[in-house]
Q: What sequence folds into this?
């Protein structure tokens, strides 16, 4: 069984420094969890379609191919 390294003191120091500079501090462990939960694989085509939808451009398929 692997016990993860404790970084409490280091995290506290980093958080204190960030807050003193009016910045937000999010521990690495939290960043990784959020990153893993919000992972989507979009192709360039997907991004193009979504961008056009956001702009209000309707997507019409042509029957003539």
A:
């Amino acid at each position: 069984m692997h016990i993860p390294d404790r970084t409490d003191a280091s995290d506290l120091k980093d958080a204190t420094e960030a807050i003193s500079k009016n910045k937000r501090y999010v521990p690495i462990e939290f960043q990784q969890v959020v990153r893993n939960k919000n992972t989507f694989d979009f192709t360039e085509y997907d991004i193009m379609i979504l961008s056009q939808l956001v702009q209000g451009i309707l997507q019409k398929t042509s029957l003539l191919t």
Remarks:
- The mean pLDDT is 77.
- The chain is about 50% helix and 0% strand.
